[in-house]
Amino acid sequence: MTEQRTTPAQDGSAPDSPGASERPVRVNAWNGWDPLRHVIVGRAEGTVVQAPEHAVRRDYPDDGFPLGTYGPMPADMVAEADQQLDDFADMLRRRGIRVDRPTPVDFTKEVSTPEWTHESMFGCMPPRDLLLTVGNEVLEATMSYRSRWFEYLCYRPVLQDLFDADPRMRWEAAPKPRLTDASYKAGFWDTYNELPTDVQLARVRDYDLVLTEAEPLFDAADVARFGKDLFVQLSFVTNRSGYDWLRRHFPDHRVHAVTSTNTHPLHIDATWVPLRPGLVLHCGERLADAELMEFFKLNDWEIVEAVQPASWDHPPKLSFCSPWLAGNMLNLDANTLCVEENEVRLAEQLSSYGFEIVPVPFRAVGPFGGGLHCATVDIERDGGLEDYFP
Ligand code: ABU
């Protein structure tokens, strides 16, 4: 029998609406657009600019963290981001959506495995990087940064609750990676950013980036779910072996490896964004593979090129996301999209396709790793497994 959870939120925020808390917990999500019933929303609390590591280069000379330095994000930025995250969570609750939140740990702590030690963790944003829901399964991704190796701990209380409440839930974790020096190309970041764009793009196309193929590595946010088809972007955090692991792990799906003309590929969810059956948003600056475009066109999907983001001229401090984060939206259903409130042009563009737009103040969350899609993980959406590319 499915247990009912009716406990109010423990964090002072609004409790789940009566409708949400009376429904049995049910892990079920096959795509990004079916009606949303239950979601995880991340937290900014405790986030640090992580200690230097092979996988990633953080260099914010104008914002107090020049190359090689690390430490807690400024308290005012954390407070503003957490306010926006809490307000967003409350808005979702008011719409009858059940909301869970992660439990931060001390991210300033040194962490280690028997094979390495790292001076810091990172945070518990964005949850979309770590968790992938496919049907009744929630899969913990490998991740590829040492600073994010232990991030799963922040989500274990929520995952344990889901597991206890839904007897159908499959709780999976991809093989914990070793992340020894063998997983990274030595000196990659010493030269990559200075290379001409055409050389960078050739390396993206040939998948010659920072990760080696020593072991499977992927972030969940490199996977876009379109029912029976999963599109996995090869990126700075997802290697071919990670794609291959996903392909074998989901034998009943068609799992596709994709790249785009993005010199700094990091998560697919601002590049190739499912909107509803038959409609996908594409970041025109990052041209998708010809085969990917063809696959969608042959199946009569319309590919909409996103307008230039409003955040183009105002990159936030300490942010490692591009302005294309504008396209990182959350569907409440196939007709309703949460869009960052400043992205008015994008909202207008999507309204013209018939979407109801819910504007959400979220710019302060960007420096913590993402937009409205990154900051969430869908746990339950209505609907079942469909083939949109028959
Ligand atoms: N997951 C966020 C992607 C951000 C970007 O494409 O810039």
Task: Describe the model.
It contains 9 helices and 19 strands. It has a single domain (22-381), classed as 5-stranded Propeller (L-arginine/glycine Amidinotransferase, Chain A). The protein has 390 residues and is an alpha/beta fold. Bound molecules: gamma-amino-butanoic acid. Gamma-amino-butanoic acid binds at residues 221, 266-267, 269-271, 321-322, 324-325, 328, 370, 374. Gamma-amino-butanoic acid (ABU) binds at residues 221, 266-267, 269-271, 321-322, 324-325, 328, 370, 374.
Number of helical regions: 9
Bound molecules: gamma-amino-butanoic acid
* Residue share in β-strands: 15-25%
Mean pLDDT, to the nearest integer, reads 94
* The first-level CATH class name: Alpha Beta
What is shown here, in short?
Its EC number is 2.1.4.1. The chain is of the alpha/beta class. It has helices at 18-22, 75-94, 127-130, 156-165, 188-191, 197-205, 240-249, 290-298, 344-351, and strands at 36-41, 48-49, 71-72, 98-100, 111-113, 116-118, 131-134, 137-140, 170-173, 223-226, 229-233, 254-258, 272-276, 279-282, 302-305, 330-333, 336-340, 356-360, 376-381.
